[in-house]
Amino acid sequence: MPFKEARDRVILTHPKGASVTILFFGATIISWKSPDRPVRGGIPIVFPNFGPAEHPDHKDLPQHGFSRNAPWEFDDSLLMDNEAGVAARFTLEPLDKIRAVYKRPFQLVYIVTLAEHQLTTDLHVKNTGPDPFEFQALLHTYIRAPSKEVSISPLKGKSYIDKTEVSAEGRATVKEEKRDVVDVKKPTDSVYENAPPSVQVKWPGGGVEVRSAGFPTLTIWNPQEQGAEVPDMEEGGWERFVCVEPGYARGFKKLDAGSTYAAQQVLSVL
Ligand SMILES: O=P(O)(O)OC[C@H]1O[C@H](O)[C@H](O)[C@@H](O)[C@@H]1O
After folding, report:
1. CB-based pocket (< 6 A), ligand 1
2. What are the phi and psi torsion angles at 88 (to 5°)?
3. Known catalytic residue: 245?
4. Atom of ligand 1 nearest to the CA of 44
5. Complex ipTM more than 0.95, yes or no
6. 107-139 pLDDT per residue, tens
7. Dist. CA 263–CA 215, nearest whole Å
8. Which residues are catalytic (predicted)?
9. Model confidence over 206-217: pLDDT tens digits?
10. 3 state DSSP class of 98
11. Which of 28-37, 44-53, 200-209 has the lowest mean pLDDT?
12. C-alpha 8 to ligand 1 mean position (Å)
């Protein structure tokens, strides 16, 4: 079926993987995806490696792994559908394309729960194989906000690594956050450890609380003018977002055979 119709929209799918979502309201196109390119925005899911591959299991994988570029399964039913929330479940298992580059048997489950002013995303990683394996995982949350005016807190006193440092030694050096309020006025790519369970992201006229559980790190990213070097970023795109990314992004999480790792992000409007 090249199209899927919902109450308010239709999604056209090209046999090679591209898709477009068109609302009936104004026949407005709200999403267009060409094949195999991750979406620059929203909440891409990063698994099993964050950044370039460092673990031998990940040596054939691209930056941020394969989960953001893979087609996930949706079983056409809702887990929850009432005033409290509407929840849908998506799964990803090793497809042939994944198995060709990654040997570990796994199942990812992603549950998206929409409440009136809150969006909850639960990520479960199950080791379905006979041996333990190690991975990283992260929710790469883009928040639409004026990046020169955003402030994020509380991160004071937290250790972090600064990936904007030019030397490998600089990037490996653990720094301590001295600021009451963190901003991204200059190019920022910081991975905080022992992330607080909640941070507030504020800008004039708006704000979002990012709560997380089970994710020990929090990455804050905005490249500012260096965004011009990011091939799929629109001109000036860096002025309109900040990424606040709960994850397991330093070291690796070891998962025993048959075990499941569960972590959650909750976004609330302030
Ligand atoms: O360009 P992407 O692969 O989507 O990565 C975008 C960014 O993701 C994370 O925030 C990393 O910390 C950054 O180093 C990286 O540049």
Report:
1. 51, 63-64, 163, 189, 219, 221, 230, 243, 245
2. -125, 150
3. yes
4. 4
5. yes
6. 999 998 988 888 899 999 999 999 999 999 999
7. 6
8. 140, 245
9. 999 999 999 999
10. helix
11. 28-37
12. 33
Type of residue at 244? V
Q: Is 89 known to sit in a ligand binding site? A: no
| pLDDT of amino acid 36 | 67
Fold of the domain spanning 36-269: Beta-galactosidase; Chain A, domain 5 (2.70.98)
19-24-30-31 Cα dihedral, nearest 10 degrees: -10
Active-site pick, 5, 64, 140, 229: 140
Tens digit of each residue's pLDDT (9 = 90 or more) over 148-180: 999 999 999 999 999 999 999 999 999 999 999
- Contacting residues for 246 by C-beta, under 8 A, at least 6 apart: 138, 139, 141, 195, 210, 212, 215, 217, 218, 263, 265
Q: Cβ distance 23 to 9 under 8 Å?
A: yes
Peptide bond into 62 cis (omega under 30): no
Task: Give 4 Cα–ligand 1 centroid separation in angstroms.
Answer: 32
State the closest ligand 1 atom to the C-alpha of 221, by its place in the atom list counted from 1.
Answer: 10
Q: Which residue lies with its CA nearest to atom 10 of ligand 1?
A: 221
68 annotated ligand-binding residue:
yes
117 noted as active-site residue: no
In the chain, CATH 2.70.98.10 sits at 36-269
Closest ligand 1 atom to Cα of 191: 12
- Asked if residue 250 belongs to a known ligand binding site, the reply is no
